[in-house]
């Protein structure tokens, strides 16, 4: 490959194997759309499960255990039914996008709804 | 749900300007649909999207010779946005073209460009306005217009006057390209003119510029491959070069299907080029192209299905 | 000299007919169909998306309307269940507060169960509310109807080559702003074509 990214016939050469071009070859609109769909559904579920945990008057570790059971359960359902078992087709970095990226956000939503309904009921 | 799909369709047509390619039947139908859609209202339509759809409706009503309605739409848009934007200025020139005279429209744009945009830094608006001015001047202007000449871009006539006519086009567009070299539409149009005049090597150069500006434009890659094939058929080049040219055609066609898996034109070109490259062994590629064409025939829209079936049966 | 030129021309014309076919075929196809089916065309020319949507996709639409209705009902039921159990739990705790046996009583099983069922129903509904992606093709098909194309997925592909498949499915050119050179359209020719077509069609 020459310096000017042009081969002998004058065609532009794009090196598809280089690390940079691999990450560019994604449709960013679709990436954002998929993330939005996921966050929407998880927001709803974490708020609802927080409310339910408060109603059941769970305290401390039991409540957090409840959250993690529902959170991971929903991720598994999402991967199996919405992604049809192929999450890498829709999410570039499956673990980061589905588990870690929104963990704090959902946990905070959960805790908010939990304490709110806990105080209201108790 | 179907309203979402309708909204998506209209916005896509507007964003890609596909409506300029529609045939009369489709244009009239689209005009009625857009009108009804905007009248019916859609709560999920943002104001910006609404305005852009109104812009499309403006041009559709111009196409359908509904000048009064076009004027009304123009007034509605300019009430919200003012008249500063280049899109609105182009719309105003279009209205002048049909309600007034062509000279008026040319004068309006000329003054605008001279007084405002010539020394401005707003290159994009300058280019858009210059394109409109160029179109008005060269299609209908007094100095250039030649009613005997068939100046349809889709018809290729071998005529000295036509040649002269297209030479002016090429000259004018080159002047514009000097000023804004990163505008892909100008390069594409230049390629179209060169193709019409059968200067395929020049057309290839123009399309390479397009591809440099838009590296993911798979349509342009396929077009480039098509141009290479035409170029390989000219008698100017010898057999050895011919193979080289066909190889670069193949590379470009392959790039286009790499960017778009079920691109009918790309796979068809691959099949045709491989069949032309007799010396090389390309049976695997032909097999792959046939497989993909079959796939397209199974699950694409009606047109692509029909065409892939036709190509496979040949 | 002239002979070679004519041969060249011939060469080009065959080449054009070879390669341009998939572009030109669409037009050809349309014209043919127009001649044979002009009645249908004139009948449905005025069909708006409302007519066509209710006309062609009666089953799909009915199923969709039923589905979205069902989802709304399920949401309401699940939220009501959770609210009801919350209220019951509140009453229970108020009662227990006034007794001396605070730590002896835990929340009754039926309230717990109602609450959990409400949550399960809510989660189920929010997953059911995902709909498969649907598109209308850009150009109406030969018989002038828009056929709703339903894909088999809920989310959009991220890799560029697969994401572009949607454009191929609906017959769209994503770079149309360049490819169709919209700023160089000959407006007067376009107007003439359409007014001619309208005149022809109104006669029939």
From TrEMBL, chain A:
Main location (coarse class): endoplasmic reticulum
Pfam family, one: EMC6
Compartment list: Endoplasmic reticulum membrane
Topology with respect to the bilayer: Multi-pass membrane protein
Listed GO biological process terms: autophagosome assembly; protein folding in endoplasmic reticulum
InterPro entries reported in the protein's UniProt record: Emc6, EMC6-like
One cellular component term from this protein's GO annotations in UniProt: EMC complex
Record field: transmembrane: 64-83
Keywords: Endoplasmic reticulum, Membrane, Transmembrane, Transmembrane helix
Family assignment from sequence similarity: Belongs to the EMC6 family.
PANTHER family hit by this protein: ER MEMBRANE PROTEIN COMPLEX SUBUNIT 6
Name listed for the protein in its UniProt record: ER membrane protein complex subunit 6
Organism ancestry: Eukaryota, Fungi, Dikarya, Ascomycota, Saccharomycotina
Automatic annotation (TrEMBL), chain B:
InterPro entries recorded: EMC2-like, TPR-like_helical_dom_sf
Coiled-coil intervals, chain numbering: none
Self-association and partners: Component of the ER membrane protein complex (EMC).
PANTHER family associated with the record: TETRATRICOPEPTIDE REPEAT PROTEIN
Localization per Swiss-Prot or TrEMBL: Endoplasmic reticulum membrane
Species annotation: Arxiozyma heterogenica
Family as reported in the entry's similarity comment: Belongs to the EMC2 family.
Protein name (Swiss-Prot/TrEMBL): ER membrane protein complex subunit 2
Topology of this chain in the membrane: Peripheral membrane protein
A single cellular component GO annotation: EMC complex
Keywords, alphabetical: Endoplasmic reticulum, Membrane, TPR repeat
Job description of the protein: Part of the endoplasmic reticulum membrane protein complex (EMC) that enables the energy-independent insertion into endoplasmic reticulum membranes of newly synthesized membrane proteins.
TrEMBL record, chain C:
Subcellular location: Endomembrane system
GO biological process: protein folding in endoplasmic reticulum
InterPro entries in the cross-refs: EMC_subunit, MMgT
Record keywords: Membrane, Transmembrane, Transmembrane helix
Gene Ontology cellular component list: EMC complex
A Pfam family the protein falls into: MMgT
Membrane-related topology note: Multi-pass membrane protein
Chain segments annotated as transmembrane: 62-83, 111-130
Family assignment from sequence similarity: Belongs to the membrane magnesium transporter (TC 1.A.67) family.
The protein's name in its UniProt record: ER membrane protein complex subunit 5
Lineage: Eukaryota, Fungi, Dikarya, Ascomycota, Saccharomycotina
């Amino acid at each position: 490959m020459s310096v000017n990214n042009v081969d002998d016939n004058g065609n532009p050469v794009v090196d598809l194997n280089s690390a940079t071009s691999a990450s560019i070859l994604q449709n960013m609109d679709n990436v954002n759309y998929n993330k939005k769909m996921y966050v929407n559904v998880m927001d709803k579920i974490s708020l609802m499960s927080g409310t339910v945990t408060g109603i059941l008057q769970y305290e401390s570790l039991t409540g957090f255990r409840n959250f993690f059971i529902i959170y991971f359960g929903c991720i598994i359902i999402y991967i199996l039914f919405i992604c049809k078992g192929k999450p890498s087709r829709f999410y570039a970095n499956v673990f980061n996008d589905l588990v870690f990226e929104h963990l704090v956000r959902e946990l905070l939503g959960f805790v908010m709804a939990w304490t709110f309904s806990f105080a209201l009921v108790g | 749900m179907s309203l979402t799909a309708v909204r998506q369709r209209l916005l896509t047509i507007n964003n890609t300007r596909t409506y300029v390619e529609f045939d009369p039947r489709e244009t009239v139908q689209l005009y009625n649909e857009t009108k009804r859609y905007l009248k019916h209202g859609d709560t999920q339509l943002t104001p910006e999207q609404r305005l852009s759809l109104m812009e499309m409706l403006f041009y559709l009503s111009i196409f359908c010779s509904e000048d009064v309605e076009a004027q009304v739409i123009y007034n509605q848009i300019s009430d919200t946005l003012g008249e500063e934007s280049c899109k609105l200025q182009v719309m105003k020139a279009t209205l002048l073209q049909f309600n007034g005279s062509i000279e008026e429209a040319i004068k309006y744009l000329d003054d605008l460009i001279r007084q405002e945009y010539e020394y401005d830094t707003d290159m994009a608006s300058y280019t858009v306005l210059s394109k409109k001015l160029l179109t008005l001047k060269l299609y209908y202007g007094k100095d250039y217009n030649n009613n005997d000449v068939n100046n349809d871009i889709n018809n290729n006539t071998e005529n000295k006057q036509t040649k002269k006519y297209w030479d002016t086009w090429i000259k004018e567009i080159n002047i514009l390209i000097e000023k804004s070299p990163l505008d892909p539409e100008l390069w594409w149009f230049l390629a179209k003119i060169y193709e019409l005049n059968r200067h395929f090597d020049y057309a290839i150069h123009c399309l390479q510029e397009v591809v440099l500006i838009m590296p993911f434009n798979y349509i342009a890659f396929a077009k480039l491959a098509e141009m290479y094939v035409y170029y390989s058929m000219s008698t100017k080049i010898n057999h050895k070069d011919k193979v080289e040219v066909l190889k670069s055609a193949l590379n470009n066609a392959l790039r286009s299907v790499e960017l778009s898996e079920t691109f009918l034109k790309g796979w068809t070109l691959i099949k045709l080029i491989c069949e032309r490259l007799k010396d090389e062994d390309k049976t695997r590629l032909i097999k792959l192209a046939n497989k993909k064409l079959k796939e397209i025939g199974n699950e694409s829209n009606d047109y692509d299905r029909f065409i892939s079936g036709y190509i496979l049966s040949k | 000299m002239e002979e070679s030129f004519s041969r060249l021309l011939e060469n080009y014309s065959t080449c054009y007919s070879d390669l341009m076919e998939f572009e030109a075929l669409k037009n050809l196809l349309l014209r043919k169909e127009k001649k044979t089916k002009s009645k249908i065309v004139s009948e449905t020319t005025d069909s708006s998306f409302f007519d066509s949507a209710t006309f062609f996709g009666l089953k799909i639409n009915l199923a969709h309307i039923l589905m979205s209705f069902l989802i709304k009902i399920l949401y309401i039921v699940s939220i009501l269940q959770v609210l009801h159990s919350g209220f019951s739990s509140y009453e229970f705790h108020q009662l227990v507060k006034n007794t001396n046996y605070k730590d002896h009583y835990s929340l009754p099983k039926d309230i717990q169960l109602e609450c959990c069922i409400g949550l399960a129903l809510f989660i189920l509904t929010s997953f059911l509310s995902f709909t498969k992606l649907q598109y209308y093709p850009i150009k109406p098909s030969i018989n002038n109807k828009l056929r709703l194309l339903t894909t088999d997925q809920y989310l959009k592909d991220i890799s560029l080559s697969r994401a572009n498949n949607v454009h191929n499915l609906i017959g769209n050119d994503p770079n149309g702003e360049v490819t169709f050179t919209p700023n160089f359209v000959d407006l007067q020719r376009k107007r003439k074509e359409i007014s001619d077509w309208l005149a022809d069609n109104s006669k029939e």
